Each structure stands twice: as structure tokens, then as C-alpha cells.
Amino acid sequence: MNELHDFVDGLMTFQRPDHGSPQKSAFMLEHRVGLFITLLNLHNVGAISLGAEHPDPPESCDLCSKLLSGQPVFIDGQTQRDGNTQFSPWANMCSDCFMQEGRGIGWGVGQLYRGVITDGQEGWFLLGGGDPDGVSTPTEPWS
Ligand SMILES: [Zn+2]
To answer: What's 54's DSSP letter?
Structure first.
């Protein structure tokens, strides 16, 4: 089996309704970069659309302080800090910090936002990791 086969096999294995098992968390962590690139490319080819606009987007990356304005994406997600567990702290991360310290894209682990400029105004729209049941808003994951 190759890496792509493992990735696709994992997608099939961990599709709903498996919510938050340790095995799924390990898959999301191991394949976070693959999920990130897949989501961006699915959007680039028009296969998936943008979701809700972030009502109060951050100005900079919480980890490296890079300004997010002008960046293509940011991730509101859990980090691998403080033991890399389900209790690790969350941060608004630029893509570089997400690659180094993010734990994944998915409900309960991280939301991917894409920057879009419309009529000169920058907005951030959900591209991945929202509530699969569509009940909660991305910025209120546990309500
Ligand atoms: Zn950063």
C-alpha cells in the first residue's frame, strides 16, 4: 500500500458516525497536511464551496504573530502543545504554524478558513472542519 492508498483507506474507515475515537484522532493528526491540501484543491477546482463567514476573524497568528491579512487561509484549531492531547490549547494559526503544530482539520479539532476579497473587503469563510451535523456554528464548537 502507498501513502495515497492509506489516506483514502483512512477516509473510508473514519467517515461518520465515528466521532472522536482515538484512532480517528490519530488519523486526523497523521494526515492533517493531506486533508489541508485536499480541501484547498477541491475548492480550487470548484468541487466544494465556502461556508459561513467568520464573524470576528483574528488579525494575526496566535503562535508566530504573522498578520493574517493577505494570507490565503488560517486555521482555528487545536495545537500539539501541552502534551498533544484532546486537552491541548487551541489557537488561530497561519498555514505554516498549522503544518508544524496543528492536530487536524475536522469538527472538534480545527476549522479551516479561506480568505476572500469581495469589493475590496477581506472576509474569512469556512472551508473545512465545520459541524458535520450542521447544528453548531464553527466558532462555538461545544455549544
Ligand atoms: Zn503562524
So the answer is: P
Give the Å distance between the CA of 132 and the centre of ligand 1: 27
CA–centroid distance, residue 93 to ligand 1 (Å): 5
The answer to whether residue 135 is domain-embedded is no
Domain tally, the chain: 1
Rounded CA-CA distance 31/54 in Å is 25
Residues of the domain holding 117: 3-128
CA of 54 to the centre of ligand 1 (A): 18
Would you write out the chain's pLDDT as a tens digit for each of its 143 residues? 688 888 888 888 887 666 668 888 888 899 999 999 999 999 999 999 999 999 999 999 999 999 999 999 999 999 999 887 778 899 999 999 999 999 999 988 999 999 999 898 999 999 999 888 877 766 554 43
Contact status, residue 87 vs residue 98, Cβ threshold 8 Å: no
Ligand 1 centroid to Cα of residue 73, in Å, is: 11
Task: Say whether 81 sits in a helix, a strand or coil.
Answer: coil
34 is a domain residue? yes
Q: How far is the CA of 23 from the centre of ligand 1 (A)?
A: 27
